[in-house]
Amino acid sequence: MIFDIDMIREVYGQLPEKITQAKQKLGRPLTLTEKILFAHLSPGVTLEKFRRAEDYVNFAPDRVAMQDATAQMALLQLMNSGRKNVAVPSTVHCDHLIQAYKNAETDLHTAKVTNEEVFNFLRDVSNKYGIGFWKPGAGIIHQVVLENYAFPGGMMVGTDSHTPNAGGLGMIAIGVGGADAVDVMAGLPWELKMPKLIGVKLTGRLSGWASPKDVILKLAGILTVKGGTNAIIEYFGEGTSTLSATGKGTICNMGAEVGATTSIFPFDEKSAAYLEGTGRKEVADEARKITPYLQADPETANNPGSYYDQVIEINLSELEPHINGPFTPDAAFPISEFAQEVKEKGYPRKMEVGLIGSCTNSSYEDLTRAAHIVRKAKEEGLSVNARFIINPGSEQVRYTAERDGILQEFEDAGAVIMANACGPCIGQWKRTDEKSERSNSIVTSFNRNFAKRNDGNPNTHAFVTSPELVAALTIAGDLTFNPLTDTLTNSKGEQVKLAEPVGFEMPPRGFAVEDAGYLPPSEDGSKIEVSINPQSNRLQKLEPFEPWNGKDYEELPLLIKVKGKCTTDHISMAGPWLRFRGHLDNISDNMLIGAVNAFNDETNKTLDPVTLQYTEVPALARKFKAEGLGSVVVAEENYGEGSSREHAAMEPRHLNVKVILVKSFARIHETNLKKQGMLALTFVDKEDYNKVQEKDRISIVGLTGFTPGRNLKVVLHHADGSTDEFEAAHTYNEQQIGWFKAGSALNGMM
Ligand code: SF4
Fold first, then answer.
1. For residue range 88-126, what is the model confidence (pLDDT) as tens digits?
2. Is 347 in the same domain as 286?
3. Which of 178, 237, 460, 714 is the least crowded, having the fewest Cβ atoms under 10 Å away?
């Protein structure tokens, strides 16, 4: 048995009493989010009226999950923590390092060869510390977690921003940096700012072309990429029970795109059916016994405005299929308005590649609905007019879909079945039809569409939508095609409409798999040696960062003033750089190379204030570091949005950047910066951003009295001898100030 039924029984044994006590203490009904959070307070934390989006609270999550790209740094930190074994069930999943090029078999073989050192390291550390290991080819972390580990009422952290996928099964699942995961694996309290609550009431029932993906695509348009910051999105209303568990997972997964801490659905019979269908009848039975504790109290739905900080209502019966993009997931368009947008904005109309997969949309249901469209189109004499790529979410889904003839239907339509892995979703796509930086359009069922994310081409216009619409647009080969209203010409010259999608929530003959790809850890890992070759360019032992020197930062040179969107992809690119995720010095050569310099609108060109030459950002940071100088990065809104990768915080730390001063931060990234001992500051008056000049030296005054809630002073020393002064805010609490002083949270742990 892969899942830990004893742990789940222990959690369920305590949930009712803890939730009842919380209700009594607060004297009111509780939302589902509150129930699970209050039942997971760290030992010693007393329940009180925590202020949402203000109070930091310590929690005790039940599980940890890590993917191969982020696990390297997390496990390197775990090795430095002095612990012998993980304190909670934890898993590592090899999914990001597999490049999509030819087909599943060839690519998997190549990945095993090129990443052998890293996979062996992850396997050995997992074995040593009691961590379950999912081999390359086993599947994408969030699909594997949903199939095996997620359970209603549980709480987990994962070193990946789409960890909230498990909310589809009623779990509070939060994406974190590796240092946070190490806290949980080391048995330490895990700290989170008590989130606000966004209640999304779902009414009605989906039909026709509308899919669960459209719920979150529409919501992304409403909330934008920042709208969920420091909030948990809780779905309620009768519409929730009409959605499959994997459909709910899709919605929760992409809540990360609005910056939400996580998203969650209540436990219902669809959840129970999925648990049973994936071999976890015991969990379904246990959950059924405590159903009221795995749902919000009914009173909260009667007057949601009293319990949620924001309430949004979506009628599933009226929901139109959506397509979002390009370059940002919150540019949301109902399909009826999309063609006009394509024409007005001059997006490349030819649809070049359709991609179905990713942790967002690679379930059995997704594949069957898309395959149905393809099958019916073939029966109607229609051909497929764009390249077609499918990445199944897990070996279990792949094996079952192959057995049921689904994959064959895709292949008959010309699709290539790639490995059960992230592949094109994270720039691990060796795209063979596009070598230049030509402007072109692709449509994916993924969650993210930042520039260069899929194929490294900044001019690839990537649009995210449901697998059903990916299939339809791939058949049409035209971005302006609307399958609800438009027809296509078949081989006989007739005009035909595509058939509405029909699929199976779960395989009628049940799931099957020969080798799911799981390796349990040794009972006793104490004798297992983990070696890191000092000559390796993939792995590097971590050296502790220097503690703070006790002084204000004085006249640090500006490294770069970033303009516009700056996601973790801009700060620490993925794609070819994924191979250095275990080697801090090597990967630091990608630091901020995707960020646009506000002074010249170019990427990776920043002014060396001494030579007055434009130089690469990492090179200038290394030069400052060699001279014993720290430096400062200035940026705009939602800095660090996107993923949980802590490399985006560790690289600047390693290259001696001292301060990140921005208009606002994305939640996970701000925490990552704090954990690595960086100073993360925000402009009190956002207009002060405009005062920063290219050759500035920047002082941060007040660090000797660094105190929660007290602003620091920023002094800009301009090249002409003049100065500007203004205040910068921070959100550090006492403990986090301790991390800053110690040099990192890990230094504080040792
Ligand atoms: Fe993998 Fe893409 Fe999902 Fe990230 S978002 S876990 S890269 S499939």
1. 999 999 999 999 999 999 999 999 999 999 999 999 999
2. no
3. 237
Same domain, 563 and 664: yes
Helix H segments across 224-355? 245-253, 269-277, 281-289, 298-302, 335-345
> Cβ distance 637 to 226 under 8 Å?
yes
pLDDT, tens digit (0-9, with 9 covering 90-100), for 572-606:
998 889 899 999 999 999 999 999 999 999 999 99
pLDDT at 517: 98
- Confirm if 64 and 188 have CB atoms less than 8 A apart: no
Indicate the pLDDT class of residue 750, thresholds 50, 70 and 90: low
Does ligand 1 have an atom closer than 6 angstroms to the CB of 574? Answer: no
Same domain flag for 36 and 179 = yes
Q: Report yes or no on 537 lying in a domain.
A: no
pLDDT computed for residue 451 by the predictor: 87
Given a contact cutoff of 8 angstroms between Cβ atoms, the answer to whether 351 and 338 are in contact is no
Which SS3 state, helix, strand or coil, does residue 89 take? coil
pLDDT at residue 369 is higher than 70: yes
- Give nearest CA residue, ligand 1 atom 2: 425
Rounded Cα–Cα distance for residues 237 and 298 (Å):
10
pTM score above 0.80: yes
**47 and 168 share one domain:** yes
Do 293 and 378 lie in one domain? The reply is no
What backbone phi and psi angles, to 5 degrees, belong to 184? -70, -45
Does the CB atom of residue 404 touch ligand 1 within 6 A?
no
Nearest residue to 161 (alpha-carbon basis) of 175, 143, 180: 175
Degrees to nearest 5, angle at CA 578 with 114 and 660: 160
User: Are 377 and 272 part of one and the same domain?
Assistant: no
- Give the sign of the dihedral formed by CA 329, CA 333, CA 339, CA 345: negative
342 lines ligand 1 (CB under 6 A): no
Q: How many structural domains is the chain composed of?
A: 3
| Range of the structural domain that residue 310 is part of | 5-318
Q: Count Cβ atoms within 10 A of the Cβ of residue 48 and give its class: 0-12 exposed, 13-18 middle, 19 or more buried.
A: exposed
Closest C-alpha to 520, from 4, 159, 155? 4
41 lines ligand 1 (CB under 6 A): no
Structure tokens at 405: 């003839």
| pLDDT bracket for residue 380 (50, 70, 90) | very high
| CB-side neighbour CA atoms (13 Å) of 94 | 28
Six-digit token string for 66:
């890590």
Nearest CA to ligand 1 atom 8: 358
Q: In this structure, are 258 and 372 located in the same domain? A: no
Mean of the per-residue pLDDT values of the chain: 96
The CATH number for 464's domain is 3.30.499.10
Strand pairing partners for 633? 560, 660
Residues 563 and 464 reside in one and the same domain:
no
How much is the pLDDT for 82?
83
Whether 177 and 72 have beta carbons less than 8 Å apart is answered as no
> Please, which pLDDT band fits residue 434 given cuts at 50, 70 and 90?
low
The CA distances from residue 123 to 542, 572, 672, in Å, are: 19, 25, 25
Catalytic residues: 95-96, 160, 448, 643, 645
